[in-house]
Amino acid sequence: MKRLAAIGALLALAVSAGTALATPPSGITAAPILARGTNQTAQLISAAANTEAVTTQLTLQPGATTGWHTHPGPVTIVVTAGTMSFWRTPDCVERTLQAGDSINLSDAALAPGGGTGLDLARNQGTVPATVLLTHVNVPVGSTALLTHVSSTPCTSAPQEFMTAGTLSSTVIARGTFAIPLNFNVAAETDILNQTIEIAPGGSTGWHSHPGTTMVVVSAGAGTFVMADCTTRAQPTGSAFLDTPNMVHNFRNDGTVPLIIHATYTNVPAAGVFRLDQPAPACAGTAGAAPAASALPNTATIGGSALAALPLLAAALLASGIVLGYGWVEKRRRQAP
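Above: the chain sequence. Below: its structure as tokens.
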């Protein structure tokens, strides 16, 4: 029995060691994924410093059209419901985008100053089409997310130069990037949009992302903590980038809920967009995610495949302990 008790104690130690490998989020009261789509085109996302990122939801009723227009900067588009027909210069080819499809607009060569080329969307189906758009390079405070034009080189495409039919648009988040943006989005990767609400005292936990993430603080104020434990304040209305594989934590040190909106890019198709990470050595106990309200599981926050690694590591360690103990015990019995 004593030997069994010893094995049990070692197993418990192994499990506790395994669960310490990652620092899960805490105080997350909501983290809905608003949109996810597989990107059809490779594009460059670029924007000048001190410009805004604006995420909107656009609904086109059957028969509605945006008319031909341009944008002040690159746009990521994810279709979340229905079907949307889409044309753009220079190829003027009709594309059919369904729920789960994504496309990027970034044709700086066609529009000096970082804007996009011409494009048009129309709902030719029988049910409403809903899309989520993230615009960048928007002048601070501007409500002009598109500008209609009166001509197009696409003679084979619809000649619609103004909005028609029933459209509705809602701003979900907007914030100012203090730095310029310049990163590539690969084809056949996923783009996701997520809104995360963190209660006072809560945090995202230490983690990283496989691709570049654009983050906007919609309400409250957050403390961004980098892997070297340096911090940066992110007030309401600010925006920042998480670069690929950068280990970080985002805390709510305030007294009101912190609401952030994230646009994840270059996520492996159907893959995870958040990878839980252990706290860096410099964080100590103070840098770990503080205790707060009941936590959603990791899948709710990011669907991280690494969430299972602590238990796997514990299982492997426990197996090694049991096998090693059995080998030692066998040699003891065989000893003269």
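The domain at 23-33+188-310 is CATH 2.60.120.10 (Jelly Rolls).
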